Amino acid sequence: MKANDIRSENLKYVLFPWSRQSGLNPTPVTKAEGIFFWDADGKRYADFASQLVCVNAGHQHPKIVKAIQDQAAELCYMAPSIATEARGTLARMISEVVPGDLNKVYFTGGGAESTDYAIKIAKAVTGRPKVISRFRAYHGASNAGISMTGDWRRAYNEPAMWGVLHAYQPYCYRCTFGQEPNTCARECVSSIEELIQHENPDFIAAIMIETVPGAAQGIYMAPDDYLPKLRALCDKYGILLICDEVMCGWGRTGKWFAYDHWGIKPDIMTTAKGLTNSMVPLGAVVVSDKVAKHFEENTLWSGSTYSGHALACAAGIAAINVYKEEKLIENSARLGTVLAREFQKLKAKHVSVGEVRGKGLFQAIELVKNRETREYLMSNKEEPYATKGGMSGIKKVLSEGGIYMFTRPNLLVVAPPLCITEEQLMDGVRVIDKALDVADSMVETRAAAE
Question: Sign of torsion, CA 24 25 29 34?
């Protein structure tokens, strides 16, 4: 099919997510390989977003493709109550790479479903009805997932699940509590304890966090002692700690899972995306031995048709083997250092760059109008008087340079496949450098207007 035919058929029959359908102009894509994909007109893009930060091993990885093909020829599906080799093998392999004593796995259809089951499990184990999430967080679009979400999308889906409380998370560049590093007393932790006390600790089953928040497009980096303090707070009140590693797991931050950077162990971990390199949908809830023990004598009152789907599990087995054999986690850590260095150079060069932050191949540039005041470069809607079209001008430069990446008002996010080479990474950084010239021109235009 030609590009216009692909686009037209999609627009006629498909409901696109998070969008008003009128006026959409989706890019028709026909091919992908490694860090690249091609549109229907043959233009090549370097995928600096790994799509939805999920194609960690690169597009169409041949070993994962082969595993899917082999499993499809042998056994695609069995009911969740039946044991299969693929499901058992993948569960064992997950337990071997997950830090801590998280050794029991419940398979789901994806990240949002993992949120649902993690909450159900936490409530069942503790016998408590409420859970705490954080603002500036995203945990999926299911009923429970969107209830736990702390960004603007939740408002459009309410009323949702009862019993969800939201707390503030660390955003050190724009501290909610008005602190600077030399005055901070970790109010981002003490405020959660205050919330627990107000709500009664005996009613709080779990605190759920994105270890490194990503889907809300922030990549907010907490102080190094934040997670240990949060772990201690959970232990103090008998609350379970759930780490959402759907986006930041599977090597994205330079370790198998992000929480290992801070030496803590959650009671429950949710995952998906990179688990299968997103080549087949699959998610998982991984629980500690203590949590799993509860269900030795108590029924797990949950289930789904596709739990432990054999075809998906085969993709997961192959993906984990690829991460190990090709040392992709190590490559993420190494090139993360390179990316951080280059981002610091961009910050020194461009007046529009307020902060750079992140870990591994999961880093962000925050754009400002003024570094002293930290005022956002633009409002959530593009500035009408921006000389080159606001965020659309930045995106145009990126697109013309063959770079596909996440952009939000005031934020650029870099999260390429972990198989990227240093040369490919530097090619992308050079295009980002040019795009920041547009942001700098907006700073200059605003200054002149004032």
Answer: negative
pLDDT in tens, 110-135: 999 999 999 999 999 999 999 999 99
- The strand order across the sheet containing 204-210 reads 102-108, 283-288, 268-271, 240-244, 204-210, 130-134, 164-167
Structure tokens given for 155: 């408002």
Parent domain of 167? 62-325
Domain boundary among 325, 344, 370: 325
The pTM (predicted TM-score) of the whole model is: 0.96
Same domain, 333 and 190: no
25/99 same-domain check? no
Domain boundary among 325, 353, 388: 325
**C-alpha to C-alpha distance for 341 and 276, rounded to whole angstroms:** 30
Same domain, 435 and 332: yes
Burial code (b: 16+ CB inside 10 Å, e: under 16) for 412-449 equals bbbbbbbbbeeebbeebbebbbebbebbbebbeebeee
113 in the same domain as 242 = yes
Q: What is the DSSP letter of 28?
A: P
Task: Please give the helix or strand (H or E) that residue 130 lies within, else none.
Answer: strand 130-134
Per residue in 217-229, pLDDT tens?
A: 689 999 999 999 9
Do 180 and 297 reside in the same domain of the chain? Answer: yes
pLDDT more than 70, % of the chain: 97
Neighbours of 36 (CB within 10 A): 17
Amino acid residing at 338: V
Nearest to 148 by CA among 201, 202, 207: 207
- Count structural domains, the chain: 2
Element holding 428 (H helix, E strand):
helix 422-449
Dist. CA 270–CA 283, nearest whole Å: 8
In this structure, are 88 and 123 located in the same domain? yes
Shared domain for 331 and 320, answered yes or no, is: no
**Residues 186, 335: one domain?**
no
For residue 417, which phi and psi values (nearest 5 degrees)?
Answer: -55, 145
pLDDT of residue 408: 84
Cis peptide before 159 (omega within 30 of 0): yes
